[in-house]
Structure prediction request, 622 residues.
Amino acid sequence: GGVANAEEPSPGELTLVEESGDAMQASAASTADNGQGPTATPQQSSTRQQDSQPKASPSSPQQPAEEAQVSDTAMRTSQKRVLYFKDLDPDADQLLQELREKLSAEYGNMLLAWIKGLDANGSGQVSLKEFQAVCSKVGYSGDSQAMFKMLLPHPSLKYLALKDFDTRAFHAMNRGDLRMLSEAAADPAQKKKPQEMDFHERQQSGFHMQLKNSLGIAQRSEFSKSCKAFTVPAHHIDTAEEFEHLCRRKHGSVICAWRHVLDLDANGRLTFNELCKALRRLGYLGDFKALWKHYGGQEKGFIALRDIDPRSDQLVNEFLQLLGKQFGTIDDAWRLGFGKDPTECITEKDLLEACVKLSYPFNAGKLFQCLQPAPGKKLLTIWDIDPLCTRKKQRGEVPFIVTSKSALSQPNAPKKKFGEGQGGDPQSPTTKPSEQKRQAELEAGRKALPELRQSMKLKYGSTVAAWRMSMDPQLKGSISFGNFALACDDCVFAGNIKAVWAAICDEKGQTTFRDIDPAAQKMLDKFRTQLLRNFSTLADAFRAFDEAHTGKLQFQEFEKGLVSNCITVAQPKRLFQALLSRIGQKTLDRKDFRALMIGAPDDDDDDGPAAASPMGASGASP
Prediction:
């Protein structure tokens, strides 16, 4: 055994050493002195190699042939100074070369064979079944299953990657070189020499021309499709049924797709131009005109939700009709019906309870699915109930829940003649739409007025203090819409300011405290009348109440002054709190009595010195 007639190996060179039977091992032989003895001579090295080999066994008749094969391999390696894979396993190398040749002949190179043949789905990995199918297609004669297992980097793996399939193709893929121009040929002998080429072949063999030609081919649609540069769906969505299925698949339901993709302006209908834009956003590839005609757009001039999904339209419209009949506006329905603040959300359980109270005739669970803004959402906001109300709230209008009742939205409904009322009787009086809108806005303003009073109390402690400190600090008696809107913002009023103003303003465009809180104004008028009956000015009345002459009145002193001056007040504590100017104030001073001048008529201002100053003498302390 061993390497016969071996020369002295150079540092770092590989030599072959047989260890047992047909096994081989590469070991580095170094001739440098390791500090433990003199340098070994070539004869000594050969002697150590021979001594290290196991003795031949008499029971191994094939050992001489194997030893001769190993000796030949070692001789060739020693001569070439390079070890090839075919030197280790010629049979496997022959099968691998056959596979490469047939794949390159079929697809052009190994990278395109991977992209267009093996990994046609673009997953980045190839299974045994896919590998066997391609091997059978190109006519590979070897065992494809054995070749697949041989290419795997580890026996436990089940999928083959590009790096395991061909290293050169893997590097070309990383560089974006789909034709593998940057990789040298596997066998330089197969490449023509420049002396053997004609003029055109030499021109085309240059790297620049090959790169230019490859870029031109890559830009063609056939090459782009084969390399998955453009994703082409296997099946085009081009029918009405597939259109509805596409809506459900992308948005959970047809009504959700209608609200978020199709009807973006929330007017309840689609024109042909709007439908075309919506279909492009949705990804529909069929005939737009055929779909428009299928849903009746050619006859009516528009498409509504009931044309696409009549069941969902019926579920939602029935619920909106019950809400509108019970509450009128979406804000009242949210606050009074669901018991939620406009910034809060409701769950499916809250919707089920509301449907039970409203005697909703259909399935509330399906209604919740129709109102969901996206699949899987567990909460609903006030903006998800009715897109038309959402549009009105964004414009600052009163968000009335109005269901479509015109003949345009209900084609089967009989058209009314000119002059007919709601009942269809020509003699019944008709109401103009503008007047209906005006009445509805006034009703909404009257309903929101208690909410405004509550906001004023939360900010200043009472409506009287809010009027005196924010709305009318100069006590002019009335304010305009601009000051009213600023004061509502200051009090953090979340309702419809325009609707409240329309309900409380007069013909001159002004409003008073009496319009905002009539009960509080009545209480102030009654107390002021009794004071001016006993005293000439409000300042004299304060001095009479302030028996200790401290300039401050606590509630006990205020209540005692009422009794001593024979003044009848139904709720003394409420009156005392109304005269306070801020939250946290415990005592009254003389300036707080100026609140009694709110809503005072002109004849009261003419009585005595109060006409010049509400407190009599100009600011003199008691």
